[in-house]
Amino acid sequence: MADNLQAEDQRTMRQINSFLPRQLGILISAFLAFMIFHHADAYDPLDPNGNVTIKWDVVSWTPDGYVAVVTMNNFQMYRHIMKPGWTLAWSWPKKEVIWSMVGAQTTQQGDCSKFKGNIPHCCEKTPTVVDLLPGVPYNQQIANCCKGGVVASWGQDPASAVSSFQVSVGLAGTSNKTVKLPRNFTLLGPGPGYTCGPAKIVPSTTFLSPDRRRKTQALMTWNVTCTYSQFIARKNPSCCVSFSSFYNETITPCPNCACGCQHNNKCIKSDSKLLSMVGVNTPRKDNTPLLQCTRHMCPIRVHWHVKLNYKDYWRVKVAITNFNYRLNYTLWTLVVQHPNLNNVTQVFSFDYKPLVPYQSINDTGMFYGMKFYNDLLMEAGPQGNIQSEILLQKDKNTFTLKQGWAFPRKVYFNGDECMLPPPDMYPFLPSSANAMDSFKFTTVATVLLSVLVAILLSE
């Protein structure tokens, strides 16, 4: 009896031991996957501190509320907010209204029928705000407003990486103890992709007078931080990369359907007759693309060509092509990660700035257009292409043309990561072994042919 119980216990323990590792492994894998994707949604390893910070500064109290200056700072190094610009929305915690705005406007007024005489600018529970266009009268402007919602990236132009407006809020608290913070902030820039956290009260902002001799401070300040995720913005990449080199005639194209092929029924062939169609080059309100028909179906293709190999330097040519007939790219940026970017000697037609997200690693650089020269990438067509060449100094300890070392590890266009070809498709160096085998085959074939000719002649 005791032997049976002991055998049963041992069998039970074996089952438990075989069950636990399997289930524990599943739980650990699920947890790690959750953590990776949870953080990856709003984390960019090449710009770990990048975000858009929206700051509200209450500058005065009014009989039924307050006046605040709202400032949007784009602290992203290479991702800007392009046309048609940002759209900001939030929800009021109580029954607040917007009496007036300077430097921006709401898209809807809402139902203000309960007000007599002085009608608010907006009575919506969830107002949606957009920037004013350039050229509005001066009495409707404040500093850093009225740029059509276009905000440069911090790394490209810090002075233009800010947008502001002023808002007068009514039916709200009249002190920092009674004001309730807006909730549920959303930011479109111009499409989806940004996730905003809750508003948090922070130390009041200080201001210097024009003569810089007097310091004042806001009556109350709160911040909202928004981070970007390419996964939220779109299902597929928005750009792809192709490769070529001087040592191989093969061109490695973008992968097929690199950006998805859902636009196949809305693409046109590169034909002069089709290009003259009415509305081809006219932007749409919903910003829907009209692409040139390609195998990759991407709006943007980046081509990296290893051009020359000198004794102490090597040279690369980079070309960016726009395949979208409805969009010009202003303030574009191209970010490349490659180990030899720590020794850039000269960039010929683009501006260049090294990015050092981690203090000990300098392998990432940002390229962008020169003002009034090529900072505008035109829509698809003859002008939809910009090019530059890069001269890099060799590090004799690491430089090689083998195994695709000369090609970038990551490429970003306008802050979105581009799809690279698979590594086994990269242009490869001619193999000396293959050349020797070819020589041996040719030699043997020649000898056999000579023998055959000799036999035929002898007959």
From TrEMBL:
A single GO BP term for this record reads: plant-type cell wall cellulose biosynthetic process
- InterPro entries, A to Z: COB_C, COBRA_pln
Q: Provide the transmembrane region boundaries.
A: 20-40
Tell me if Membrane is a UniProt keyword of this record. yes
Q: Which residues form the signal peptide?
A: none
Keyword list, A-Z: Glycoprotein, Membrane, Signal, Transmembrane, Transmembrane helix
Superkingdom of the organism of origin: Eukaryota
Start and end residues of each COBRA C-terminal domain: 238-427
Mind naming one GO cellular-component term on file for this protein?
Answer: plasma membrane
Family, per entry: Belongs to the COBRA family.
Name the UniProt record assigns to this protein: COBRA-like protein
What lineage, starting at the top, does this entry show?
A: Eukaryota, Viridiplantae, Streptophyta, Embryophyta, Tracheophyta
